[in-house]
Amino acid sequence: MPLLACPLCEKSISKRAHACPNCGEPDPFRYHSRKSWIERIVWTMVIAFIVIYGWLELLPMFIEAIR
Ligand SMILES: [Zn+2]
Asked: Does the entry feature the keyword Membrane, yes or no (predicted)?
């Protein structure tokens, strides 16, 4: 039976457990994938912000340079 660490209490529990027997977290591994999904969106927004900010900062400089 494969054992994985609970994302909340980090105790080894069965991968197929529907709830953590130690802390009682329901569906602990869907919680884990939901967290990484949110992390991915946050990173996408951070990268998009840097690209848009860089574009708005560099574009006027580029227009000045070629004029
Ligand atoms: Zn737990």
From this structure: yes
